[in-house]
What does this fold into?
Amino acid sequence: MTTLNPRAVVLLSGGIDSTTTLAVARERGFETHALTFQYGQRHAAEIDAARRIAQALGAAAHEIVTIDLRAFGGSALTGNLAVPKDRAADEIGAGIPVTYVPARNTIFLSFALAWAEVLGAWDVFIGVNALDYSGYPDCRPEFIGAFERLANLATKAAVEGRRRLTVHTPLIHLTKADIIRDGAALGVDYALTLSCYDPTPDAMSCGRCDACALRRKGFAEAGLTDPTRYAG
It folds into this structure.
């Protein structure tokens, strides 16, 4: 069955932001092609979450690509560094934490760009956020703008002048509470999502890492119940 809807590649990690972004892309009329990475992160639970979400939100396709960033390490998510726990809000927003994975969004967007070109898609969606985030440099508007310019220098379709690729960041200027409210209005079931950096073996969120803290804060400020199971 063919569709007249334009195609878009949507980066999908299984968390709140990427899930809401997938819902936004669908709402904007795109045929969504979800892209998830098994990149050597310390748990596979978010991959399972991404599978559930892609199915629930009607993605036309869902690719899970395996790359090994543990070969380089340099992050609490891909190495033996401890995941920070019980940090105050002012600590979370200060500096670049050890959960930053070097060049992760650059790598992910490069894969998304390659798939988009193969699909004949001119749109890539990524759920980066410059307000309620953990200090990651590759979540800033400056980075996204630079990557979009690079993409339009690096691809056959753009160089031939057929069209220009757009990197969409629908959440970039929203608070976590705003993101949750918008997703809820679009019918997102956040019980399907996982935000935790260090979940238990049975996929229960730790409740103490930065990601859990930001999630809890977002739901509280949105006035909505967080459906996540927390260990602490």
Q: What stands out?
A: DSSP finds eight helices and five strands in the chain.
